[in-house]
Design brief:
The complex is a heterodimer of chains A (114) and B (112). With 114 residues, chain A is mostly beta strands. By secondary structure, chain B is an all-beta fold. Helix content of chain B is 0%, strand content 59%. Chain B has no helices and eleven strands. In chain B, β9 and β10 form a beta hairpin. The chains are: A mainly beta (114), B mainly beta (112). At the A-B interface, β5 and β10 of A face β5, β9 and β10 of B.
């Protein structure tokens, strides 16, 4: 398994507060992704990165921003958390090599916004 | 229509049974296909990639039918430990971006 960690693993916060989730990988994978998982929706892409400082939006990016200043770290920020952002957040990485495209997931962060 | 569709189940089967899941996808330009396994409150883990010629890994067999745009997963001799949610994943280029699209998963319960 790819060495992917997420922090924090659990967080409770209040509406309107900023929240930053961290994803750290030790595999030197090029691509990194942030997903949220909610019942009935499966995994939905929030943002992804295809290299240091190169990021793009996914299908549910409103209310979220990301940054990638180093290959190993990908940060997800909720600028002003809302109750609709209560979810499980998964980070994933992909080596990005031709013929070896697949994703490896971190353990997830459970976020509750009150 | 969802881009990737799966029967949510649950499929309740006795130990030792054979069970099959299907998944359909809408983008005919999809390039790669996968089955992931997700245990309750855990992250998805890659079970197997799916190749055009079909592939087998122990008790698990995956098939791809590009003409009909579906993927299947067959589990033989089911074990209690196979109880999980199985996610179908499809990827390929959409509007110049390489994307992974996940199904919502099929839940399997193997009963003693």
């Amino acid at each position: 398994d790819a060495g992917i960690t997420q922090s924090p693993r659990h967080k409770v916060t209040e509406t309107g507060t900023p929240v930053t989730l961290r994803c750290h990988q030790t595999e030197n994978h090029r691509y990194m992704y942030w997903y949220r998982q909610d019942p009935g929706h499966g995994l939905r892409l929030i943002h992804y990165s295809y290299g240091v400082k190169d990021t793009d939006k996914g299908e549910v990016s409103d209310g979220y921003s990301v940054s990638r200043s180093k290959t190993e770290d990908f940060l997800l920020t909720l600028e002003s958390a809302t109750s609709s952002q209560t979810s499980v957040y998964f980070c994933a990485t992909d080596p990005g090599l031709a013929g070896q495209r697949t994703q490896y997931f971190g353990p997830g962060t459970r976020l509750l916004v009150l | 229509r969802k881009e990737v569709e799966q029967d949510p189940g649950p499929f309740n089967v006795p130990e030792g049974a054979t069970v099959a899941f299907n998944c359909t996808y809408s983008n005919s330009a999809s390039q790669s296909f996968f089955w992931y396994r997700q245990d309750c409150r855990k992250e998805p883990k890659l079970l197997m990639s799916v190749y055009s010629s079909g592939n087998e890994d122990g008790r698990f067999t995956a098939q791809l039918n590009r003409a009909s745009q579906y993927i299947s997963l067959l589990i033989r001799d089911s074990k209690l430990s196979d109880s999980a949610t199985y996610l179908c994943v499809v990827n390929g280029r959409t509007s110049g971006t390489y994307k992974y699209i996940f199904g919502t998963g099929t839940r399997l319960k193997v009963l003693a």
